[in-house]
Structure formats: C-alpha cells, structure tokens
Design goal:
Structural class: alpha+beta
Order of helices and strands: HHHHHHHHHEEHEEEEHEEE
Helix content: 25-40%
Number of domains: 2
Distance between the termini: 41 Å
Strand order of the largest sheet: 3-4-9-7
Number of strands: 9
Largest sheet: 4 strands, antiparallel
Shape: globular
C-alpha cells in the first residue's frame, strides 16, 4: 500500500499525542492501532465512539462512516437533495448517494439494515478514491490468484482488482470471500486504507470551488490512436461493426468470460461531476471496454466532457460478462451511465433504477442532449429510443442491442 507523504504522517503523529483519553469502542486486538489513528484523525463517527466494532456493519452504518471520511477531507457534504429512497431518509445515505459512493437496489429500495458485503465495500472504497482524484488501477486477472475469485460479481471485479493492486485488500487463506458480511472494524479499516492511499497520491489542485474557473481538459489522459483514420460513425453497417469487434463477419461471438476478457482493456475517461458544494468539477471515471472501440469510447467521452452541457457523470460501466448470449456488455461494446437516474423499463414496468427525469434530475440523460448526440455520432444506439417495448435510458450499444 502506498504510504502517506511525510507532512500528513507528522500531522497524524501530533494528533495522536494530543488526543485525550476517551472511552474506547470494543474492538479486536488487530484493530487497536488503526482505531487510535482513526480517533486521532477525527474520522470515527460519533455513533461508534463506544460501540462494539466486532459486530456486522449495516448499509446505513457504512454511509455514516463514509460520510465522516468524506467530510473530514472536503469539510462539507451534499445537503440540498431529498432522499432518493423510500425505505430510508438519512442525510448520510443521501450524501453518499449524491457522491456516487453507494446505490440502491432499484424501485427506490436501499435496504439500510442489510449487512454490508465485502464486494459491496470494494466498490465503495474504489468510488471514494476516484472521487478524491486518485485513480486506482487493477487487472481482473489478479482475482484468479484466489480460490473464490470467480465468485466476485462482474460489477465488483474491477474495484476488487484495483484494491488488491493498491494493497488495500489482501484476502485471507487464499480467499476473497466476496459475499461475506463485514464487521464495523473491517469496514473502517478498509475505508482508512483507501483514504490513506488516495491522500498520498491525490492532486489537491483538482479540488475546485468555482465551476467557472474550470477550462475544458485540453487533452485526455489517453490519446486516441487512429491507424486507419477512423473511429467509426453513424454510417457504419452492422457487418462492418461486427468485423471490427470479432475479426470477420463469419466469426463466432465470444462464448466464455475468459475468451472475452482477452479482448478487454481498461480506459480512464474525463467527466464532469458535482463536488460536495454542488459545483461541477472535472474528474474521471474508469471502465472496461473492447480493445477495438477503446479509442472510440475515449473520443465519445471527450466530446461529452467538452460539450456545453458539461453533463455530470458519477457512474459509468462497460464490460460485464452476463453469459446470456445477447447482452452487448458480454463483449465490452455496451455502456451504462448513471443507472439509477436513467432506469430500465420493460413493457412499462421499471426493473432497474428509480426514474428518468431529464431537465429535473441533472443526472438523467436528455434525449436531445450532448450524451446521446456524441454516442450517435460514433454509431452507438441509445436504449431510450432504440426499441418499441423496452426503454433503457442508461444504455448505449454499438450493435444496437
């Protein structure tokens, strides 16, 4: 794990020496040192100052912990939004949702009293680090080093690999235990390690308070390579697209996750999002896509980023092996953006996400906005208008499915 820079370390030691004696929470021996550091850095939520930290963490408690960490860094939390959930109205949950750290289960359900699983926590820490302008990277092949690595859900594989690479997650006895419930002390330890790692590498000049002071990013981190002079367009035929992805119009689609992953690459794209003061700031998101469209996807997001809307993006997903033979996520050629505010509706029934309210919710994608136009320019269909009986407002697909 990356170490804190010397000034932060010195400050932490001073705080430790100045910290008055308090009634300590109950914790395991292995956590005593980290608990002292958390208390000294004022990162321990007040509700846990005398709690039993060996007990399981609920999803609500996770938000309270994460909010405490975020507030210590930025000094404020989003406070101007109503709860997006019908089963909880806690400011910490709403703030973490606004920051892109947590999501719900669809239909307005958050399940605040459910136990927090390790793979859910992988995603929270990963998103927290991205929000601190640290971009953890990881190769999903790292998961193969664990006997249960294949059990990590597709949506958690990249975060798990990134945290393994950073040394924030280690596993135990050759296991990652993705579905195991976390205790409070385990949750705090993972947050603390992620916070330390991000603090050591964060570029504090990227924290802005005035959106008007921000200029469009002059160059993306990864420059598109155009050996054939083309990144694709709306005029491409299905046969041309299929050949680009699979090599020939007669080639078979990938039949297994292992086969598909050989053709996937990880890219980091520039995006806008809101900071804790609800001001749009420049940041980035990382996703996995097919190698043949990596430059195209980079060009799309760069256009969205430089567009007049400065459309805010807190969540973006690409490759996800679903094994159904139809989803373009299987082949890394479909992209989902802000899933909760751009829901999936099947025959009039919402099944994923909570709403689609362009013009009212800034994270909802307008049908005539920069996002839809940028994807369409490069030949992607939008799930909001591509099909008769289904609307998938978060979804953009290269083949149109």
């Amino acid at each position: 794990m990356k170490r804190l820079c010397r000034p932060i370390t010195v400050l932490l030691l001073v705080l430790l020496l100045m910290q008055p004696a308090l009634a300590a929470p109950r914790c395991s021996d292995w956590f005593i040192s980290e608990l002292s550091e958390l208390s000294a850095a004022a990162l321990l939520p007040a509700g846990l100052d005398q709690a039993d930290l060996t007990q399981p963490t609920t999803r609500l408690e996770l938000c309270q912990m994460a909010a405490s960490f975020w507030q210590s860094l930025y000094g404020a939390l989003p406070t101007d939004a109503a709860s997006p959930f019908i089963d909880v109205d806690d400011p910490a949950v709403t703030a973490c949702y606004q920051l892109g750290l947590v999501g719900g289960y669809g239909e307005g359900i958050f399940a605040p009293n459910d136990p927090l699983t390790r793979q859910q926590m992988f995603c929270v820490v990963y998103q927290m680090m991205l929000g601190m302008n640290a971009a953890p990277q990881g190769d999903a092949s790292l998961l193969s080093g664990y006997a249960d690595g294949a059990l990590v859900a597709e949506w958690a594989r990249l975060p798990a690999a990134a945290l393994l690479d950073e040394g924030i997650v280690h596993g135990a006895d050759g296991l990652l235990m993705p579905e195991q419930a976390l205790t409070r002390e385990q949750t705090l330890a993972m947050l603390w390690r992620g916070w330390q790692s991000a603090a050591a590498q964060a570029d504090w000049n990227e924290i802005y308070s005035d959106a008007d002071a921000l200029d469009p990013m002059p160059e993306p981190d990864r420059q598109p390579e155009q050996p054939d002079g083309s990144l694709g367009s709306a005029e491409e035929s299905y046969e041309q697209k299929y050949t680009r992805i699979f090599g020939s119009p007669d080639a078979a689609k990938y039949a297994t996750a292992d086969e598909a992953q050989q053709h996937m690459v990880t890219i980091t794209v520039p995006v806008w999002n809101y900071n804790t003061e609800h001001v749009k700031v420049q940041t980035s998101r990382t996703l996995v896509v097919h190698e043949a469209i990596a430059d195209t996807v980079m060009a799309i997001f760069t256009e969205i980023y430089n567009g007049p809307e400065r459309f805010p993006i807190y969540s973006v997903g690409g490759y996800s092996w679903r094994g159904d033979g139809t989803s373009e996520h299987n082949w890394g050629i479909a992209i989902d953006i802000n899933p909760d505010e751009n829901y999936y509706v099947y025959h009039g029934v919402p099944t994923v996400g909570s709403h689609w309210k362009p013009g009212e919710d800034p994270y909802s994608i307008p049908a005539d906005g920069d996002v839809v136009r940028a994807f369409a320019q490069y030949g992607f269909a939008w799930g909001g208008n591509a099909w008769q009986y289904t609307q998938d407002y978060m979804h953009f697909s290269y083949f149109g499915g």
